[in-house]
Each structure stands twice: as structure tokens, then as C-alpha cells.
């Protein structure tokens, strides 16, 4: 079954999509881990699943983070994505849309269905600009799901700030504790916290995700950090034709060289540049992993 991300990877580079579908990743990007953890939590309606997924990904295959302490950074981001999941789920119930049968095969949308039958996609970003809004409206993640389901999509952008040394100083993660009362605030209505207020990450407090969100609400911290726009299905016939063409090419090893160094080097670049397969360079095929654990599951 194909999902939205398969088409994203196919559009970037057919060979990369084929390798991604075939081999286990050596590492996962921090952004990829956050989005996977968020999706897992929204799919089952449980914010704690987000934290569990991120820590699981940090253990295997590992997350790409530049930090003085990879474990502490993983804990920090697991608490962040738990709060984000709790916030999105507090807006209303969500459910995973059913797979759809297309002429080219089964398709699973990556976005989530809201109670009013619209699609919802959450975008995590360090800032939200008019240019970023247009990018998200026009992206394949929006276009494919809208076209195939014939539903509008609510794109919710959440500004989570930049990563510095593996941590994010953001209202979603960081508060200030009063030296005498122990009260925690995330921002002041006016001015700044005086030096006696100690900066503290949520993971170093006893506050649950919903407790943290109540503090944020009381401090007016959502304003300027959460944005929602609605995108209707457009150019549906053209998009469905393009998707069908991409689906037929799935499994190709045609290389799109202009994408090899786009944003960051492709993880499969060492294989392509040396004219070798990922397996020859030590990548583990997903089927071989399944074959290896199947006997253990049977004997148990």
C-alpha cells in the first residue's frame, strides 16, 4: 500500500524512493522523528504515544541531533511532541482515514480526519511566513491527499522554534519558575522575567502535558505560534493524473541528480556515487529484518 510520503520521495528522486522502501534507515532526521511521533499519537488519540515513539526512534535507528547529550535531547523532544499532540487532540477528536482503492493500487492518506470530515495536517516549523504558507498549500502532502479524497484540508502550523545544541528554548518546552512560590510561567504579558526566575524545561518538572498547556493558555502563549489555513482541492484531474503516473514508476532506480545535494546530501549518495547498492555498503533490507525476527516470534 502506498501512502503520501511515498509520492513525496518519488517526486524528489525515484531511486531514493525505491531505496527508502527497501532499506532500513541508518538514522532518521529530527524533523522526521517529530512528525512520525506526532502522527502516531494523533492516529490513536494518545499524546503519550508521541513521547514513546520518539524515544523508540532515538534508540533505533537513531536520530540525527547535534547535542552535548543525545539522550537528554531525545527526552527534551519527546516531551515537546507530547505537548504538541495534547494540544492538537484538545481541539477535537481525530481519526485515520480509511485506505482508498485507486486504479493504480491502494492508497493511505497521511493526513488525519477531523470530526467535520475535513483533513488535518500539522506542520512543525521554526517560523511561519506567507511564503511558507504558499509552500504548504502547494506541496504534494496537501495536493495528493486533497485530490484523492476530494476533501478540504486544514493546515495547522505550529511554531516550535529553532534547535540550538540539541534543545529548543520555546514556550512549548521552557518555562520560568518563581524562586519563592515555585510557580511556573512560560511568558509574561509585558516585559521579561527578572533574573531570580529560574529557567526550567518541562522534563525537569512534574507537570503533565495538559498542565503545561493550561499555563500556556493562561499566559496567552498560543498567539503568534499557532496558525490554521484551509486548502480546498484544486486542479484535481491534473493531480490525479500525475499521481497515477508516479505510482506506475514506483520501483524505478532512475536517479534525479539535481536532488542529491538538495537541502542536505541524500543518505543514499555514497551508494549512488560509487555505483554500488546500499546492501553492498552495509544497509539492511527491511525484508531481511522481518525474516530475522519471525523465527523469534514463532518460538516465543
Give your account of this protein's structure.
The chain contains eleven helices and 13 strands. By secondary structure, the chain is α/β, with parallel strands linked by helices. It has a single domain (2-172, 225-299), classed as Lambda Exonuclease, Chain A. A hairpin with a 6-residue loop joins strand 10 and strand 11.
Helix and strand topology:
Blueprint: E1 2-3, H1 4-12, H2 14-22, E2 28-29, H3 30-44, H4 47-59, E3 63-64, H5 70-91, E4 94-95, E5 100-102, E6 105-108, E7 112-114, E8 119-125, H6 130-138, H7 140-149, E9 153-159, E10 174-177, E11 184-185, E12 198-201, H8 209-218, E13 226-231, H9 236-249, H10 269-273, H11 286-299
Parallel strand pairs: 1-6, 2-3, 8-9
Antiparallel strand pairs: 4-7, 5-6, 7-8, 9-13, 10-11, 10-12
Helix pairs in contact: 1-2, 1-7, 3-4, 3-5, 4-5, 5-8, 7-9
Amino acid at each position: 500500500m502506498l501512502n503520501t510520503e511515498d509520492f513525496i520521495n518519488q517526486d524528489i528522486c525515484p531511486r531514493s524512493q525505491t531505496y527508502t522502501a527497501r532499506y532500513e534507515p541508518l538514522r532518521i532526521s529530527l524533523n522526521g522523528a517529530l512528525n512520525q511521533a506526532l502522527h502516531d499519537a494523533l492516529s490513536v488519540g494518545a499524546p503519550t504515544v508521541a513521547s514513546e515513539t520518539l524515544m523508540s526512534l532515538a534508540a533505533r535507528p537513531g536520530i540525527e541531533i547535534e547535542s552535548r547529550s543525545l539522550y537528554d535531547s531525545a527526552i527534551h523532544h519527546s516531551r515537546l511532541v507530547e505537548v504538541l499532540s495534547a494540544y492538537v487532540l484538545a481541539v477535537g477528536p481525530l481519526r485515520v482515514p480509511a485506505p482508498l482503492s485507486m486504479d493504480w493500487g491502494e492508497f493511505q492518506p497521511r493526513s488525519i480526519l477531523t470530526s467535520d470530515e475535513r483533513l488535518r495536517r500539522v506542520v512543525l516549523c521554526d517560523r511561519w511566513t506567507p511564503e511558507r504558507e504558499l509552500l504548504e498549500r502547494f506541496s504534494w502532502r496537501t495536493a495528493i491527499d486533497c485530490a484523492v479524497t476530494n476533501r478540504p484540508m486544514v493546515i495547522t502550523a505550529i511554531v516550535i522554534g529553532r534547535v540550538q545544541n540539541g534543545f529548543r528554548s520555546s514556550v512549548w518546552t521552557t518555562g520560568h519558575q518563581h524562586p519563592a512560590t515555585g510557580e511556573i510561567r512560560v511568558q509574561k504579558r509585558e516585559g521579561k522575567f527578572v533574573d531570580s526566575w529560574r529557567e526550567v524545561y518541562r522534563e525537569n518538572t512534574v507537570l503533565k502535558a495538559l498542565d503545561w498547556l493550561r499555563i500556556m493558555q493562561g499566559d496567552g502563549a498560543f498567539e503568534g505560534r499557532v496558525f490554521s489555513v484551509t486548502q480546498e482541492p484544486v486542479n484535481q484531474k491534473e493531480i490525479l493524473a500525475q499521481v497515477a503516473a508516479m505510482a506506475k514508476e514506483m520501483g524505478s532506480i532512475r536517479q534525479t541528480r539535481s536532488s542529491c545535494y538538495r537541502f542536505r546530501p541524500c543518505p543514499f549518495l555514497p551508494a549512488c556515487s560509487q555505483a554500488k547498492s546500499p546492501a553492498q555498503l552495509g544497509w539492511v533490507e527491511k525484508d531481511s529484518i522481518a525474516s530475522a525476527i519471525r523465527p523469534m516470534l514463532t518460538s516465543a
